[in-house]
Amino acid sequence: MLHCLRLSTITAFLLVPALLCQGQVTSAPLASDVTELDPKCPEGTYSGFGVNTWEFDIPAAKFVEKMGSFFGGEWYSGPIHATEGADNTVGSKRSGKFCGVIFNERLAAYSQSPSDSDLSLVFVLDNGPIVFPSVNMTFASYVDDLSIKSICSGRATYISFTIVLCADKPASAYDFFDKARKASVGAVADGLGAKLFAGSCKD
User: Are 36 and 108 in contact, with CB atoms under 8 Å apart?
Assistant: First the structure.
């Protein structure tokens, strides 16, 4: 699993960065279908969730610029091979390949502040169940929720990633996403020259 995750992350960051949305603010309410955002797992799979958080010492708008495009998701998932609809619009879709497995994802919710200091992006697996033979794991569904918020009077950034999933091995699935997120967000932060901090805001 580690080998697969490293290869995918390295591949993503060797690509020319995708052109991100600029200038426009697209906003939509959260999807009203709660069962989609917290699905009931089919037989043979089990519910799981995971949360990752970071605090970085640069303004949130810098992270929004790099991470705020649904169609520009190479920083997280690896190369995006196809898209459908308009970027950052609820219902739009993207497809790619991770660890050799094709995934289709759909944007379920999106909001961004006019100042680019706050972002919320929620996407769901649209072609489950998918099987990863290299790690012997099956995902029936997952809901990934990315949030970027401005803190410390605009001088710093709080990022959270929450996943709700149905998998045959939920503990292994947590580990799978945990490693992928730490590697991906860490690489974005390194590229921006951002440093982690914990505790109170610096003067």
Answer: yes
What is the fold, at CATH topology level, of the domain defined by 2-192?
Alpha-D-Glucose-1,6-Bisphosphate; Chain A, domain 4 (3.30.530)
- Measured over the CA atoms of residue 65, residue 72, residue 17 and residue 2, the dihedral's sign is positive
The whole-angstrom separation of Cα 157 and Cα 197 is 10
Give yes or no for a contact between 87 and 102, defined as CB atoms under 8 angstroms apart. Answer: no
d(CA 151, CA 87): 26
pTM of the model: 0.80
Backbone CA torsion sign across 123, 126, 132, 137: positive
Q: 97 forms bridges with which residues in the sheet?
A: 102
> pLDDT digit string (tens) for 75-115?
998 889 999 999 999 999 999 988 888 999 999 999 998 88
Q: What's the CA gap between 5 and 2, in Å, rounded?
A: 5
